[in-house]
Amino acid sequence: MTGRNSRVNQCQNPTGWLGRWVLRNMNSRHSKVTDWGLSRASIGKHDIILDVGCGGGRTVSKLAAIATQGKVYGIDHSTESVAMAMRTNKQWIDVARVEVREASVSRLPFSDGAFDVITAVETHFWWPALPTDLREVLRVLKPGGRLIIIAEVYKGAEAFTSKAAERYSEKTGMALLSVEEHRELFTDAGYSDVQLITEPRKGWICCIGSKAPVS
User: Fold this and answer.
1) Segment 64-76, tens digit of pLDDT
2) Is 128 a domain residue?
3) What is the CATH number of the domain that holds 126?
4) Which end of the chain, N or C, is more open, meaning fewer C-beta atoms within 10 Å of its C-beta?
């Protein structure tokens, strides 16, 4: 396996000592884009939140600090990620404000309409079946609930990282989408009030979609 492919694989599914290093790096490197994206969406202090692909758990911790009277769940398909996310959020877990589980976005272990907000930071381009996974996320949203996808690369951005990700997307398997392709993805999956916010020079994108309220 080449050095590049090894690093890509660790980003997608962290394992072992290298995976732990990647997760610590993610917790640090993704912090600014996470803050930027979360600032675009109103999150209430009573909200019940799910972070899909929680990685090292930094986003879960940020969400727990916002939803001070709610609860935050994190899921990841990587055993190493779940272990680190639990260490990162030990203080929240000890007071039952956070729960972290090993699970796949393709089969979420939650009942219909369980969450007010669902977040996904730097992960959706790795999901195994993006269109159907978006519908699975929609299933566990409450009517009126919102999905917030945040990433630091997207197709067509001016940033070097985005251009590099596009160049190697066939080799890495990343499902990079343009702004309009993100809009179509959300709309086709059944989301309403879709918003797309970008910082093209940084390569940042924030996609927000809502589950229609019960009429």
Assistant:
1) 999 999 999 999 9
2) yes
3) 3.40.50.150
4) C
In a domain, 75, yes or no: yes
Does any domain span residue 215?
no
Number of domains in the chain: 1
Percent of the chain past pLDDT 90, that is, above it, reads 74
| HEC readout, the chain | CCHHHHHHHHHHCCCHHHHHHHHHHHHHHCHHHHHHHHCCCCCCCCCEEEEECCCCCHHHHHHHHHCCCCEEEEEECCHHHHHHHHHHCHHHHHCCCEEEEECECCECCCCCCCEEEEEEECCHHHCCCHHHHHHHHHHHEEEEEEEEEEECCCCCCCCHHHHHHHHCHHHHCCCCCCHHHHHHHHHHHCCEEEEEEEECCCCEEEEEEECCCCC
The residue range of the domain holding 39 is 3-210
Is 32 inside a domain boundary? yes
Q: Which long-range contacts (CB under 8 A, 24 or more apart) does 62-67 make?
A: 62/34, 62/35, 62/38, 63/38, 63/117, 63/119, 64/89, 64/92, 64/97, 64/98, 66/38, 67/43
